[in-house]
Amino acid sequence: MPTIREATFQLLRELGITTVFGNPGSTEETFLKDFPADFRYVLALQEASAVGIADGFAQVTRRPALVNVHTNAGLSNAMSNIMTAYLNRTPLIVTAGQQTRTMQLLEPWLMNVQPEVLPQPWVKWAYQPVRAEDVPAAFMRAYAVAAQPPAGPVFLSIPLDDWDQETDKIAVVRTVSTRCAPDPTRIADFARRLSEAKNPVLIYGASIARADGWGSAIALAERLGAPVWAAPSSERPPFPETHPLYAGGLP
């Protein structure tokens, strides 16, 4: 039977995730053992840097990126950029090792005592699998939750003795929709109000950029002849700043 490690890496292959960004420690050694030749591990000098690199990678590829950090203090080091990824709506699967299941009752050194609490509220979902055999399926759910709008980081805590366990359960790869649409009735009402407005002003947010909506946003502004303001603290430019209708960013 395959090990949890083998089953998980096969799932990641099928999901198209073959790059791992990280700064590991002793509790991640069993994950890294026999690391597959077709995977790439991008080593950062600190956990926050690993998350930041993965954030940029995920934004460019528009797919969830996998991050591997050290347990407890390592996850704490990563939290500033996990928060940034959450505000950026960036899909990340952040993983950290955990002490062995047989030792957890003793709360030994380097144990994350409350792994599902520590990264809150800056992750969409945090989980430590109840059983080793649940690890691959947990990765599948993590991928789905991270990718579904609004996208964002998720966290998995994996006990270090789980990876060598054998399993006869193979996680089923699910399709994940990354699109959502507004209510057509509300859109029709919005269009009517815009067409009747005498001096409309448009405020665009970062979701336009995330959805590759610049073309439609420009067309709407030009048809209305309306000035465009960028919403406060937009993490991505929603409208070209060189366009004559661009009025600036709201404070």
Kindly describe this structure:
With 251 residues, the chain is of the alpha/beta class. The protein folds into two domains: 156 residues, Thiamin diphosphate (ThDP)-binding fold, Pyr/PP domains (Rossmann fold, 3-Layer(aba) Sandwich); 66 residues, Rossmann fold (3-Layer(aba) Sandwich), CATH 3.40.50. It has a six-stranded parallel β-sheet with strand order 2-1-3-4-6-5.
pLDDT averaged residue by residue: 94
CATH fold descriptor of the largest domain: Rossmann fold
Query: How many strand segments?
Result: 9
Strand order of the largest sheet: 2-1-3-4-6-5
How would you describe the shape? elongated
Category by helix and strand content: alpha/beta
Brief overview:
The protein has 251 residues and is an alpha/beta fold.
